[in-house]
Amino acid sequence: MTERPRLLPLLGQAGHSGRDSTTCLYRCGNACDHPVPNESDNPYLGDVVNAGISRRGVVRAGAVGSLVLGLGAAAASPARAAPAASAAPAAAAPARSAGVRKGKAGPLTFKAIPPNRLDSLIVPNGYDSAVVMRWGDPVLPGAPALDLANQSARRQSAQFGYNNDFVGVLPLGRGGRRALLVVNHEYTNEELMFPGFTGLEALSVEQLKVAMAAHGLSVVELERVDGTGRWEPVRGHRLPYNRRITALETPFAFTGPAAGSPWLRTAADPKGTTPIGTLNNCSGGVTPWGTVLSGEENFNQYFVGGDGAPAELKPKLARYGISTTARVPAGSRRWERAQERFDLTLHPNEAHRFGWVVEVDPFDPDSRPRKHTALGRLKHEGANVIVARNGRVVAYMGDDERFDYLYKFVSDRKFLAGDSAYAWRHNLTLLESGTLYVAKVTGDSPAAEIDGTGKLPADGTFDGTGTWIKLVSGNTSYVPGMTAAEVLTFTRLAGDAVKATKMDRPEDVQPSPLTGKVYAAMTNNTNRGVGTNPGPDEANPRNANKHGHIFELVEDRGDNTAESFTWSLPIVCGDPADPSTYFAGYDKSAVSPISCPDNVAFDSAGNLWISTDGNQLDSNDGLFATAIEGSERGHLKQFLTVPYGAETCGPFITGDDRSVFVAVQHPGEITGASVEKPASTWPDGDFAKPAVVVTWRLDGGPIGG
Ligand code: FEO
Ligand code: CA
Ligand code: CA
Ligand code: CA
Hints:
The chain is mainly β and about 700 residues long. The chain contains 9 helices and 31 strands.
């Protein structure tokens, strides 16, 4: 049974572009109110349009063939044996679940969910759903249940954190009955966490530390409910894998060329090797070797005192959205009152210790999580890895800001298959050295045909070619005037210098494990073509783009390590009745409205799943699915919707296709809402709690199929 839909009053007021203003404040520190951080004079695509012949047809023929591992789904859900030397329990072992679709594409037969404003999680007929973990649920053995009147940093550090975003589910053992759930906790809504909340400035130091402990990641051991796609947390006193990683106190290790550089040294860490905590962890990815990557995104909002930073650092701070003129910028979380390191006047390098891709090994609960400097420093949405034909691993990444860039990393070392301790240790080093690239994208239609309305050019497609511009390889910089450590620490400035293409907020970027083609969500950019901002180009073809689009990238020769590619836009989002939308040419009367794509994922049949954040069509956010190959390409349907005020995060489809996990982030995040006056009472009927949900088919069949 799904929950009975219930209508709630629509509290609040619209923020920028119709987004609720509370979301704007808490999630990204009112980024839309601030100047666009990218003030570089890079040409946008329209300036460099190349009317040359597309190589797309050639590439398509050879696109398949990247190594696909694990269970066949996007994240491949690998399971891995713990090495004998590790403290990790020996229960983890290689797994290959039964019942895998093995890439056999079938039609997506579920009946689409209509747009709605209900305060429930809605799934199609024939499906069920259940909360797996919610904010405040015990994670560590002996942790107390959530008690708002007695919350403390110590309790929160043992409980599930707030605002779950990325979801990874990694099989544990061979039986298909156990798994590790790994979840990011991106940020906190203090107004929905603390009774009597009157403002961030008024929080006690202990409450600030609660918020810091509610950030980070959780690792939770799950077990499957017999014979179904439902999963539940394992309860008990021996939960060796369960873990909390927080912004409050968890030590990390820097790896790669910038580790230990002067930019990363602080009074508390004069060697520049051991940052404390992780911030604003948004999306991420599961690696083929069974670890989890997590992107540190809007870290700027946690810092004050940029006005007192050294003059030479100010441009570097400003490029990441940190105010260098205000002592306490509007929307600051005021964490400097709990930990002095968040005051940049006193500790100007502390900000450089965030904005990295983090790697966590959930199978080794004693392992120190790492921040890989070789992958550059951005507002990382996430990172998704594929093993290229030549064995090197390639991580695709987006920098989620208006007019920022797409990146990829290619490892120096090659992936080792197998479950030996040697292979495990080797694979853990893959993201420590390699080559970092940024994308330059060119359209193949005349610039005059890209008029900003979304009207297709005469060749019928928004498409073209692109190159990956090398920024750093190992310790060698390819950016004039910048050292390798500088390029990796101030990667946005390096992208400016090489004139990368300004995109419409690149969010999740993920390669299909079946084809090696790469899909990136451009969530929106209401500043495109507005005022003095860059106008439309073929890859970002709409002015004031409020609904976003999907960018498909096909590496030349089907080689994910290639330095050139072709691309197209299979989906230009919005209401299908809006002529500016496009669904790969599919009959628009059969597709669902979609707005603000954020996260992408694949099932084992290769269908593309898209979750949204910030629907601008007067509906709750949702999860959608479409075939991306064949005659059904573009037949997009809404699979579920999340409760009122929430965004849909994750998603994660298990390798056997029997379960889809989503993270319901910030339910009830509506201006004026509070613990006492909630805009959402999901999931328990009292006050709003972010939660991870699993959905499965009642007849045991594959999700969506
Ligand atoms: Fe946290 Fe880019 O969304
Ligand atoms: Ca074209
Ligand atoms: Ca996101
Ligand atoms: Ca993803």
